[in-house]
Write a structure and sequence with these properties.
The protein has 245 residues and is mostly helical. It is built from 11 helices and no strands. Helix 1 packs across helix 6 (105-114), helix 5 (86-103) crosses helix 6 and helix 8 packs antiparallel against helix 9.
Length: 245
């Protein structure tokens, strides 16, 4: 039994090493020049060993995206459990997403590199389904808090608007902003001196637009930000070196 457990642990550790090294290699050489030979060389495993885990590079990349989505999901879940109103919980999830990217920039960068590549279709149906589920789970976390807000009377969505659509608006707005942050666009020249604060303000502008209580001007949101960081993400708060003044 002990030997079996050890082998399982070693297999999982080897798989994690392959995925992590593939992410680093992807950021260095790009998708086109990424291949199993280079992955084997970087990990110092034989190609045969790599193929014991993954049938092709796309399988590795999809598993990489799955792990990134799941890791991001842990931040969203923790934010959703913040002891506050649904709007404060949305704010906590937004800050959790920001912390995830601050602490795991390579996860976000690698996802961006793969957005326009048709890797899903080259992966197995099982892997495709697993990735779809991981992404749906994250949207579901946000939508769940939005449903709480509707049920508790904090917001009344107009006819035809769903909580999933509001989640989509929040998600795309945040992701689009971080794409620009990681790009070569000169945000300072565009008048954006603090892009993360701009994301924060835009999220609240969207929620105000839906008539979501409490409105932005009704709370001391800066103190709420600090409370979220320290109560929900204390270790990540320290790791990210965020000033709490």
């Amino acid at each position: 039994m002990a030997t079996s457990e050890r082998k399982k642990r070693e297999y999982a550790e080897r798989e994690t090493l392959i995925i992590d090294n593939t992410r680093n290699l992807l950021l260095e050489v790009g998708y086109i020049d990424l291949n199993m030979d280079r992955i084997a060389e970087l990990t110092e495993y034989s190609k045969g060993t790599i193929y014991q885990h993954f049938s092709c590079k796309e399988e590795i990349l999809v598993e990489m995206l799955i792990q990134s989505a799941q890791k991001c999901g842990t931040f969203l879940v923790r934010g959703s459990r913040f002891q506050g109103t649904p709007r404060e919980r949305v704010a906590a999830m937004a800050l959790g997403y920001d912390l995830f990217i601050r602490l795991n920039p390579d996860h976000f960068k690698s996802k961006l590199l793969l957005q326009n590549e048709s890797i899903r279709g080259k992966a197995s149906p099982v892997s495709q389904k697993k990735l779809d589920q991981a992404e749906q789970d994250n949207i579901g976390i946000v939508s769940g808090v939005l449903r709480d807000a509707v049920e508790q009377g904090h917001v009344q969505l107009r006819k035809g608007v769903t909580t999933e659509e509001v989640s989509f608006g929040l998600w795309t707005g945040a992701v689009g902003a971080y794409v620009l942050m990681f790009s070569e666009v000169n945000l300072q020249a565009l008048g954006i001196s603090d892009p993360r604060m701009a994301v924060w303000n835009n999220i609240h502008a969207l929620l105000d637009g839906f008539g979501w209580h409490p409105f932005f001007h009704e709370l001391d949101w800066e103190q709420t930000r600090i409370r979220i960081w320290k109560e929900i993400f204390p270790h990540e708060f320290q790791q990210a070196g965020i000033a709490s003044n």
